[in-house]
Amino acid sequence: MASRPRRNKGLNHVAGLDRIVVILMMLVPTVLVLGLVWLPALGSVGLSFTNWDGIGPMSDAKVIGVKNYTDVFTIYPPFQPAITHNFIWLLVMFFIATPLGMFLAVLIDKNVSGSRFYQTSLYLPVVLSLALVGFIWQLIYSRDQGLINGLTGSTIDWYGDQRYNLWAALVASSWRHTGYIMLLYLAGLKGVDPTLREAARVDGASERQTFFKVVFPVLAPINIIVLVVTVIESLRAFDLVWVINKGRNGLELISTLVTSNIVGEASRIGFGSALATIMLLISSVFIAIYLRIVFREDSR
User: Fold this and answer.
1) Does the pLDDT value for residue 2 go beyond 70?
2) How many helices (DSSP H) and strands (DSSP E) are in the chain?
3) Which of 6, 28, 35, 222 could make a disulfide contact with 188, Cβ separation 3.0–4.6 Å?
């Protein structure tokens, strides 16, 4: 009579632990994302159709339909400047800070002398919060003791004058964004097959032609990530502007309007939630485009 094979209890125990670990690794992030992202987002969408002021219980809130959205577009003066400023923010980040970051990545990728020092120095602002970046640039922009006015002898209040404060904030934000983009492109350039450049060099292509016709197309996944990151960073720009003047006096952004209505003195939760929902919809358009491109690349 053939003997039955003995089961290895140790292996079964390890396999069971592996299953538990995998389940926890999937369950914990899912619960956190649902609890900290999706539920608050859906709650904001629901509150945007009410007149809740955040003072009494939510049961006292009345459903008022799309009145909050109508008021945003018709009788809320700061909304139009906020949209314009966010658009300007996006243009500056996309057409100035992003190309500059890519250019610096190309230079550092050539292993020039001191490239490690330059890489560290340029990336340093990325690890700082935008609020801290705002305080650092205050040393440069201060009207009385700032570096610019000290060198030029001018008395411009770069953060206070609405003729200049948006551009001053954009310079400070670009300082940080450039280092982030540089790191993304530098990681992408390290993964480019060297034989592609050698083949282009053999065919007589210049450095410029090699980059734009050979290397840049290979960096398509990085380009998509950079595009989405730039758009989202421009839409959710908040910390730097809030530190300067709480998003007032020429520095209105959608994110600051949301905060000032929800947690500010106005305490208009429903109205602020409508602004947050508009911001969510704008962001979702670019996220959907990004996901569509990614899924298309995966299917290929």
Assistant:
1) no
2) 16, 0
3) 222
